[in-house]
Design brief:
This protein is mainly alpha-helical. About 70% of the residues lie in helices and about 5% in strands. It has five helices and three strands. Strands 1-3-2 form a three-stranded antiparallel beta sheet. Helix 4 crosses helix 5. The longest helix has about 50 residues. The model has no long low-confidence stretch (mean pLDDT about 95).
Length: about 140
């Protein structure tokens, strides 16, 4: 990271999150801006953007704010590096739990998507049959 700071508008564009959502995540303590400008504007780093992307990816999978906070805490602590072997293994196990949870949700979403595609296909076929009967 080059230490470059971004204002909230740029972060919103990069993350495809609304300003309101980013501010909400700050209010609940998920992603706090790394700095403030002299004028009081929120300033974010690349690491802040990465954290917001984690949250953005977890939300549609049904993870709670508390789970998001827990995962971010675990990954932050892993990234710090000053851990005993036991602490590292405990944190890795927490992250693995979220990985498994995400994989389970992906499987469920694939089933839902297949059902939705099947439904759309049956409707399309019905419309085509009825259009053909009327010509």
């Amino acid at each position: 990271m080059d230490g470059k700071h971004m204002q909230i508008g740029e972060v919103a564009t990069r993350t495809e999150l609304s300003l309101r959502t980013i501010r909400h995540y700050e209010e609940v303590g998920l992603v706090v801006p790394s700095a403030r400008s002299q004028g009081g504007f929120r300033l974010y780093t690349e690491r802040d953007v990465e954290r917001l992307m984690v949250v953005r990816r977890m939300k549609p999978l049904g993870f709670t704010l508390e789970q998001m906070r827990d995962l971010l805490d675990a990954t932050d602590r892993l990234d710090e590096g000053d851990l005993s072997r036991g602490e590292r293994e405990i944190l890795l196990e927490r992250v693995r739990g979220y990985e498994h949870g995400a994989a389970d949700q992906v499987t469920k979403l694939r089933v839902q998507l297949a059902r939705a595609e099947e439904f759309a296909r049956t409707l399309r076929e019905r419309v085509e049959r009825n259009q053909a009967a009327n010509t």
